[in-house]
Please model this.
Amino acid sequence: MSDDNVIYIGNKPVMSYVLAVVTQFNTGLSDEVLIKARGRAISRAVDTAEVVRNKFMRGLDVKDIKIGTEQLVGGEGDKINVSSLEITLKAKA
Amino acid sequence: MSDDNVIYIGNKPVMSYVLAVVTQFNTGLSDEVLIKARGRAISRAVDTAEVVRNKFMRGLDVKDIKIGTEQLVGGEGDKINVSSLEITLKAKA
Model:
């Protein structure tokens, strides 16, 4: 999967990311979109996937969900662990 | 899986839920624990699973992760959709 198919969730409203995912499916070359988030944005990633699936594109499966921990380096060189979530949505065959 | 093996994530600090999960594995009758969260607590559920796996009990697999939408009824009878997340942790055989 190329980087084009990855939507990174940040602090914008959920609908911004819903639009990004729907656009990606409609214009992209892949039948999969990967939604990625870290920290507090994780709940927004789940919101995004659920709104896309329930309101906009019913023909999608949740292909995979992964959780993990990433290590960030803070301003003073200290290391911070932050949780991550990846949701792969795939168009039904 | 009985209700005993379900840890519901709320607004307490992550370590409260980490302790609950570890205790459940150590005293429970099952080799699985289900971590459930809704809305903004979802990111805390991922934190809980990751801290348990990385710091306390390395012999755990993430058996399953599910996302969903639940409908809550608000104070004035209006319906609110809220995202949910379930993480199943299982002791390695």
User: Anything to note?
Assistant: The mean pLDDT of chain A is 92. Residues 3-91 of chain A form a domain with the Translation Initiation Factor IF3 fold (CATH 3.30.110.20). Chain A is about 30% helix and 40% strand. Chain A has one domain: 3-91.
